[in-house]
Fold each of these.
Amino acid sequence: QEVIVIQNEHLQLTFNGTTGLLSSMKNLDSGLFLPVVQNFYWYQGSKGNAENIQTSGAYIFRPNVSTPLPISPKAQLDVVKGRLVEEVRQTFSPWCQQVVRLYQGSRHAEFEWHVGSIPIVDHLGREIITRFDTPLRTKGLFLTDANGREMLTRRRNFRPTWKLNNSEPVAGNYYPITSTLAMKDEKAQVTLVTDRSQGGSSMKDGSLELMIHRRLLFDDFRGVGEALNETGANGQGLTIRGRHLLFLAPPDSSARLSRLAGELQLSEPQLVFGTLHKKSR
Amino acid sequence: RAESTVLRQAMAVAQHHDAVTGTEKQHVANDYAWQLSRGWLACETVIKNALYNLSGNTDKLSICPLLNISLCSVTESEKQFRVMLYNPLGREIAWNVRVPVQGRAYTVANHAGKPLDSQVMPQFFLGLYHHGKSHKPSVNELVFQASAPPLGFSTYTVTSQKGNVARPSPPQRVQH
């Protein structure tokens, strides 16, 4: 199919049938429509260069170029639709998969991603990001939360209290995201809610990115004395599964939606399962 | 033994900046994980005791710590089970419950016996836990929309429908 659509009462997501990537999002309540392309990319961790021997490691994020490479330009698709949830399942590579879901009644799209073990057979350190690209005119501004409380406005290559000489074009624009990363123009706001603390940025207007996994092969000389190359019991690199919530709404109503959803992400209900004893059965 | 002190102490240790930022050596990371895991296990008993007291039921209660990667021996093996949702927030919540199951059709009812809408779908991520060997997922996921009162709990009963074929879990999945 050329176009694949999933929707609930509040949102509609469209996927490009050729690339398998998300192509647009529509808020059915407000009528807001926004082209959105989402994909996974990787920055190659620096091994140090003639200019600076600093490597990318546990303390230091230093990619060797400013442009991340896509893990795959296309995703293989599988679509499941039912009464309670409609979902698109994307396979980008054997170690990178994602499900995009719309639950009945939900005002956000859920992106559940599964990344790892990051391959290192080519001896390259990889720092994996998810990126959402839109045509929003954000004028170099984006918003990050301050430990889940106040939302702070950030401006690319700028600090409010001193003149910044940014020698690291990517890392110098990364900020801690405890729960929320957002961008907006006059009409629309795109908000991403995380399920854990991550690093994130807006490297160009209309774009949001979050770092979701890293596997690096060199120590960064800051004290840890080891490369950030954590392995599980099977000796392979770690596999990580997580969740992002994506909101598209007018700027005036965005905060209320994302704040309540973020609270629920942080304090999700505890599930306990009961099996009947033979007597009571 | 039911106690929350073990987890409290593990959390205190994990306030060290190395644990917060992930800048510790690997063997220290392993120790942080071990301490948190011990603390969590001790707290499971606290939670279960509290729910026994609050609900007054005689079910054998279990917590599935690997539910985040769709593994839960109770829901995968039992033809009938209860799901209790404890809500730690001070407002009523709606939550989409997703549990791994072997069968293809289930009935879900709330505490009053009223049936709810539910959906069974094949699991997607399952193949990735087989050390890179791709295989067709054999286990499904049951989805239903639950709600829970502020700082309280709700209970749902899930029953496998007749003719629902249940298959045992592959042993390597359980081990993993």
Note: The two ends of chain A are 50 Å apart (CA to CA).
Amino acid sequence: IINGRPVQKGTTPWTAMLSHPDGQPFCGGSLLGSKWIVTAAHCLHEVLDSEDVTLHHLELLSPSAFKIIVGKLRRTQSDENEQSLSVKQVFLHPLYNANTYENDVALVELSRGPVLNDFVMPICLPQEPPEEGAMVIVSGWGKQFLQRFPETLMEIEIPIVDYRICREAYALLKKKVTRDMICAGEKEGGRDACAGDSGGPMVTLDRKRGQWHLVGTVSWGVDCGKKDRYGVYSDIFHNKAWIQTVTGVSN
Amino acid sequence: HLVELNNMFGQIQSPGYPDSYPSDSELTWNITVPEGFRIKLYFMHFNLESSYLCEYDYVKVETEDQVLATFCGRETTDTEQTPGQEVVLSPGSFMSITFRSDFSDEERFTGFDAHYMAVDVDECTEREDEELSCDHYCHNYIGGYYCSCRFGYILHTDNRTCRVECSDNLFTQQTGVITSPDFPNPYPKSSECLYTIELEEGFMISLQFEDIFDIEDHPEVSCPYDYIKIKAGPKVLGPFCGEKAPEPINTQSHSVQILFRSDNSGENRGWRLSYRATGNECPKLQPPVHGKIEPLQTTYSFKDQVLISCNTGYKVLKDNVEMDTFQMECLKDGTWSNRIPTCKIADCGTPAELENGVVTFSTRNNLTTYKSEIRYSCQRPYYKMLHNITGVYTCSAQGVWMNEVLGRSQPTCLPVCGTPTFSRNLLAR
């Protein structure tokens, strides 16, 4: 997270860490329902070397190749409220395109759900599509400025950017922003997600219901925090139906 | 002379007809026609010497046992009778005609010319003799007749009386009514009816004659025609007949045979009896606490069955097995097949654990019996109950925890989402 601030303990109890068995974190995620993690699809397969990136040619991470930690705050040191959870199975979005990051969303089913408490709580699914200009909070353990990893979970508060503005900005870089994506950040850059934050939550407060809900998950971007380089996130509302079909979760 | 005639018709004339007949002669014609016919005789010409009471010349018509007519002279007077246009009919299939002339005949008498023919006897209309007439229906045909019977009856081998097939009446119910066939109409003739009352050992059958009792009898001889006999075990009661019904009979047996026999005559209305089988009485029963006995009777006897059931929320407990109802039977030795079971309050047992929730008992010492209440609640604030139900479950009469919305399904605690205990101050400017 570039230009972020440390997260206050217990204010983002849905944030999950995806880490290798050696404890090395590699992505973020969000707890959904009692035993599901929403994250980015590109977190869960080996880095590509061939052009053929259709779903069934991706080499998925095996459930035993990573674990999920919730209730986490510090990046590498253990926390008193963290719960380490094993993975039962992984579902990539059926229309995920590893080349273009379309539908870059995946679901991880946990073998056992965590114990919910003040530090572990699921995020709600959005009831409405995201609003341009709405303030959202993105959190993660990814790189900060000067490529250094943070000691603790960091967060930024940024606005959602108009889809067309974002699409045109990326068109100059020959990048395609599609309808299943959301952009957020400031035009002049500054606050942004970065490598290692992928899959992490973009949330906003639904004032009507007094609930935080998941707007998007960190997906991709060019550089981190540069001018006209918005962060691109996978739109959860766009894929809500698929998420509910797979998980059966409703708010 | 004797002439035997067997034709169905014929002519008979005096000797020498139409010349005068000789004196001092006697001629008999015996006419026989088949059964079912009679003979009709009539004269076309008649001219005999007349005499007081036809003592000289005459024609005599007779059957085996009676003189039908004696004719003489030319016309009928108060002492002589000529046939004129009269027809003489024989009662049966035989007629004998005798012509006699005495020794002196001053005048010339030309005698007679007679004709005869067989005519059918309509046994159906003529037969007075009850002994021989048809019992139900009579069908006359030329030369005879036959009988038939009403629906449900069978023509007896005597081809006259109608009997019924009534030898396989079996009664197995504990009570019943038995009557003679077609009661209260006259019972059929020539019938041998057998009514069997067959019950399980342990029952005692008692008989009671009712209403009309009318079986053909005889003033001196005991029931020589029709009668009813009752066989119960080794005992045989009867024969009964006449118009006075026998007294109520307690046969002391579980198997009784009633034999009713009728001969081929008589028009009597028969009889009707009701029977009841009772068994040994069993002791009075007390319903279990929280239960009831059905049917509730002052006394119970052999084969009576009762159903024990419990009030709502209680189950019948027998040999540690719970059931909804329990049946008992009064046995033939006057004991009950079982002891009265008890009624055990339905117990829903310890309620199932609720994932991410807890159960609390709303009644003293965590009762789990009928009507007890428990309350499921989810671990707040992290979980909340799906469907926003009360979580209150009541132990139902079927021994199942029931919720008014979910029925017997357990509630579900869903994670509460998006409402962290610690809230940040939004830094948005």
Note: The longest helix of chain A spans residues 163-171.
